[in-house]
Amino acid sequence: MELLQLTYFITAAETENFTRAATIHSVPTSDISQTIKRLEKELGTELFIRSANRVVLSKEGKIFLESAKKVLFELENAKRRIADSLDRISGEIKLLVLTNRRVVTEVIEKYHVLYPNVNFVLSHRMTEGEDYDIIISDTDPRGSGYEKIPLITEKVYLALSKEGIPGLSGDISKKDIRLGELKNLPFISMPEHSSHYGLTKSICEKNGFTPEIAIKCDDPYYIRKYTEMGLGATFVPIFSWQGLLSDKIRFVDVGDNIRTTYLYLSAFGKSTRAVTEFVPLLMKECATASKL
Length: 292
Hints:
The chain has 9 helices and 11 strands. It is an alpha/beta fold. The strands form 3 sheets. Strands 3, 4, 5, 6, 9, 10 and 11 form a 7-stranded mixed β-sheet that branches. The protein has a two-stranded antiparallel sheet with strand order 1-2. A two-stranded parallel sheet has the order 7-8. Helix 1 (3-15) packs across helix 2, helix 2 (18-25) crosses helix 3 and helix 5 (101-114) crosses helix 9 (273-286). The radius of gyration is 23 Å and the shape is globular. The relative contact order is 0.15. The model has no long low-confidence stretch (mean pLDDT 83).
């Protein structure tokens, strides 16, 4: 029995699809299928109940999945303990950063000066079947297996160009305004899978309307540029985006809207010194955002 067999099996079990598992591991689907067939032959039982477009674990497969995960966890833990025993912090930290990219980037820069032997693998979109040491998000992306730690609570403002937006009706010169007054306003947001899109929808719907998303863009830099150009308005978590918007932008208070970002720490993450040194550094950097 090989570690690769266990890895492919676990991914296939979590995605319930050999093709998706192959995509995650960047191999042909036949590699996943043949590897699992060899594993089933060695165990003397079928691990999956197969159908045209989906595979689901058999009774024996569910039993084996639990043990396979424990085996990989213990092996990974042993690797990290060995690295720690060498009295130097090294290894790899896998980060999924769905919010607060600026803050996390600044912390990584400081951390790298202290611990240059630690490498980072960063993602800004969740990959099905992928495990992470740390997830930074304002929603619970996995549901279980991660310790949830509050990281940043910040007020959310509406940002729009001081030059105005063509076709916008209503007075936006006052300091406070009800968001419902701007229901015909074009909005700029990141795509559907993003935290920013969810924030935009939830705030508008709380105020009784569905936002008109005029521009969707997956790059925060261009979200800010399009806002400065007056192509629409966007919601700004004030701590996370501080210093990133020019003086061409005005901020409008649209009520008591806040966003709380959490740090989700995996069991793997708790077992490595690289992660346990990174977490307090990140929390310290975010401490200034604890007061609204």
